[in-house]
Amino acid sequence: MSEEPTVDAFMRHLQVCLEEARTIADGKERQERCWQLESALQEAIIYKNRIEELQRHGLDPVRLVEADGVNTPAPAPKKVEALMSGHAHCGTCRAVLEPDLAFCPACGAEK
Fold first, then answer.
1. φ and ψ at 96, to 5 degrees?
2. What pLDDT does residue 71 have?
3. CA separation for the pair 33, 24 (Å, rounded)
């Protein structure tokens, strides 16, 4: 089994794609593709630097954060929003109710 791809490998891939994009004949398409790839390359650099910074401080950059166990309900919609959207909201969890269901798809409460 091969090694997992690294951020450095991804950055090299983006650089190769950028070189290829510079050969696109259509000027507008070439410019847009180059901007996309340059932006992606910048984000990869930012990500790599952030990961290295966290590791220098002894932090695990990919540690999963456990939920705190408290489910805070979504804020109640404003009357204007409800009228404009045409959707009813669950009285228990404030989720949008589907008109063809007799219960809330989010929490299961009956209409």
1. -70, 130
2. 67
3. 9
